[in-house]
Design brief:
The chain is of the alpha/beta class and about 230 residues long. Helices cover about 30% and strands about 20% of the residues. The radius of gyration is 18 Å and the shape is globular.
């Protein structure tokens, strides 16, 4: 199902305004801080040295698959092709800011579900209203409805997943497209002021649903019993 934008609070304002990363990344990290991975995890598009490994709680073992050997993945593979990994191999699958760089992202998403064990969890972040980036191509900006339809077509019932829009305010979504917003003294000062405006004006998050910088998609693959119903 498609979730709602988290309401702005002063506690969230303090955390988001102090981080020296993009607003999209700060909103992503806010969600990932609540993730706890146990057992075996496949990081699709990951590797060594990525910042989100410091944010997620992980009490298990993680393998990574990536096209680039430079980031030291466990498996070097093209995500536009079927993964050289057995079906139902992992307890969790994660993929952060990767699928927009995969031309055949529907295949990649389907492969992520395939290698996940029944009952296993998946956690995905993707940009939406965010500028082109990356060195491997940047192909997609899908709506929440697209992700909802794609997951249901891959056999994940709507009640088993949530697509959470990542936004703070309409103004912050617009300014986040500027490279200086959040960087340097000027950027950090402006960001703190802009993020404070909805709180001062007592605005709700309802008006930001259509201007998300990205989405956090979390869910669970149906168990064998659930799939057989």
């Amino acid at each position: 199902m498609i979730g709602v934008v988290a309401p702005p609070t002063w506690a969230r304002w303090r955390r988001l305004s102090q981080q020296r990363v993009t607003l999209l990344r700060a909103l992503e990290y806010e969600k990932l801080e609540a993730v706890h991975l146990a057992g075996s995890t496949l990081d699709v598009g990951g590797g060594a040295g990525f910042g989100y490994h410091l944010v997620i709680k992980n009490s298990g073992v993680t393998h990574a698959v990536n096209l680039s050997a430079d980031v030291a993945p466990t498996v070097v593979a093209d995500l536009n092709r079927p993964l050289p990994i057995a079906t139902a191999s992992y307890d969790n699958v994660i993929s952060f800011n990767t699928l927009e760089h995969i031309e055949d992202d529907r295949l990649a998403l389907n492969e992520m579900i395939r290698v996940l064990k029944p009952g296993g969890s998946f956690h995905i972040t993707v940009p939406f209203l965010y500028r082109r980036h990356g060195r491997y191509g940047d192909y997609h900006r899908h709506t929440a409805e697209w992700w909802d339809h794609a997951l249901r077509c891959m056999g994940v019932p709507a009640e088993q997943f949530e697509i959470v829009p990542l936004a703070w305010s309409r103004l912050s979504s617009a300014l986040a497209q500027l490279s200086w917003f959040g960087g340097g003294l000027k950027g950090r000062f402006v960001r703190r002021m802009v993020l404070a405006l909805p709180l001062i004006a007592r605005q709700s998050a309802a008006g930001t649903t259509d201007v998300p910088l990205g989405y956090y998609i979390r869910g669970r693959k149906p168990s064998s019993a659930e799939a057989g119903r």
